[in-house]
Fold:
Amino acid sequence: MKEIYDDIVTPRLLLRLISAEAVRACLNNDIGSAERILGVSITEDISAHLSGFRYGQKQLKTDPLYQRWSARAIVLSDQMTMIGLIRFHSRPDPEYIYEYGRDAAELGYRIFAAYRQRGYATEAVKAIMDWAQQEFGTSRFLASVSPDNIPSLRLVSHFGFKKVDEIMDDIDGIEQVFLRIADKK
Structure:
C-alpha cells in the first residue's frame, strides 16, 4: 500500500508530516527505516536534533489531536532530501501562551547547516503559517529566538513579528518571544 502524505507544498519544498512510526525509527537511530517511511533521504544532521521528536511524543500522549501540528520534515522537492525540521509546539491556544493572547500557535524551525542562507526557512515558515491560517483559521503566531541568532531575528522581522517578551528557557537559555498577528483571510 502506498503511503499517503500530508504534505504542504511550496515552489522548492515539501513540508512532510513525520508520522509516529518515523519518529520512533529516528529515535532508535534507524534512519533507513525512517527514510523508507517518509520517502525521502535523511542526512546525519537529524541525529543532533532528536529532542524535538521526544517533545512531540510527549505532546501526542497528552493531546492526540496534536499530530497534524507536530514535526514536519523540510524536504527539497527536486532531490527528495530532508534539509531541516519545522513544527508547532502545540495546537493553537495552549494555556502556557495565554499571556501573549488567545488562539496563538508557537512554531519552531531548524535548517541543517549545509542548507542555510538560501531562503528555505523563510519559505517553510510562510508555508506553515499559511497552512495553519487556511486549514484552521489560526492568525496569531509566536516564535522564540535566541538574541544571538541573527538569521532567525531577520526572519521574524521579515514576517512582521513583534517582540513581546524575553524569557529564560531551561534548554536554550535566553530567548526573545515574538508575536505575529496575520491579516484574516
Notes: The mean pLDDT is 91. The first strand starts at residue 8 and ends at 9. The CA atoms of residues 57 and 184 lie 31 Å apart. Helices lie at 20-27, 31-38, 51-62, 120-136, 150-158.
